[in-house]
Amino acid sequence: MAPRLVNKLNEGVDLADALKKKNHEIIECAFKNLFVEGIINEKLYVYSCLFSAISWSDCKLTKIQCNDVVFNNCDLSNIHFTGSSFSRVEFNGCKLTGTNFSDASLNQVLFKECQAEYVNLSASKQRDVQYTGCNLRGAALDSCSFHHVAFHQCHLMEAEFYNTPLKGVDLTDSEIAGMRISPVLSPELRGLTVTSLQALDLARLLGLSVKD
């Protein structure tokens, strides 16, 4: 389900000031072409908001709650969202290099055409999440809980899926060279759908020598 934004969003709110307030609610606002730096806060509540071309630097926004939020062309690299909750949220064309979503809850979230090398999604709970056209090279996707998670035309080279069951996930149109899984038994792979060529790559990860 797409984020539900009201037709008229408030554009007069000072974003930096709002982010600094403890237990603060940011509701039905739009922000554009801003630079935010050095914000450390937790338990913020963000509802029905649009962020466009916002650059974030050295921020830690842990345990925040985002509902019905859209991020368009934002730079969220290395931001800490540890333990946060995202519901009906879109990240469109965003830079997420090294962004920390560990222990986060993602429900009905879309990542579209994002540069997300080395993004940290460890131990996240993901339900109805879609990654489309994203660069997830070296991403940490270990110990995740997946329910209806889809990857379409993504780069997953060297991504880590240790202890993440992949049953029902289809990676046939994504690049998975060097994908990292548990070396013994690899329970993550049960029920995963791949192409025959991708199966050869996975066989090598398991230590098998494939001979024609």
Biggest β-sheet, characterized? 8 strands, parallel
What is the CATH C level class, in words? Mainly Beta
CATH architecture: 3 Solenoid
Write down the Rg: 18 Å
The helix tally amounts to: 2
Oligomer: single chain
Looking at the structure, what is the overall shape? elongated
Q: Regions with pLDDT < 50 over 5+ consecutive residues?
A: none
**Span from first to last CA?**
46 Å
CATH superfamily: E3 ubiquitin-protein ligase SopA
Q: How many domains, in number, for the residues?
A: 1
Which strand-content bin applies to the residues?
25-35%
Structure description:
This protein has 212 residues and is mainly beta. The chain has a single domain (15-205), classed as Pectate Lyase C-like (3 Solenoid), CATH 2.160.20. 8% of the residues lie in helices and 33% in strands. It has helices at 15-20, 196-205, and strands spanning 25-27, 30-37, 40-42, 45-57, 60-62, 65-72, 85-92, 105-112, 125-132, 145-152.
Quickly describe the structure.
It contains two helices and ten strands. It is mainly beta and 212 residues long.
Lay out the secondary structure.
Elements: H1 15-20, E1 25-27, E2 30-37, E3 40-42, E4 45-57, E5 60-62, E6 65-72, E7 85-92, E8 105-112, E9 125-132, E10 145-152, H2 196-205
Parallel strand pairs: 1-4, 2-4, 3-5, 4-6, 6-7, 7-8, 8-9, 9-10
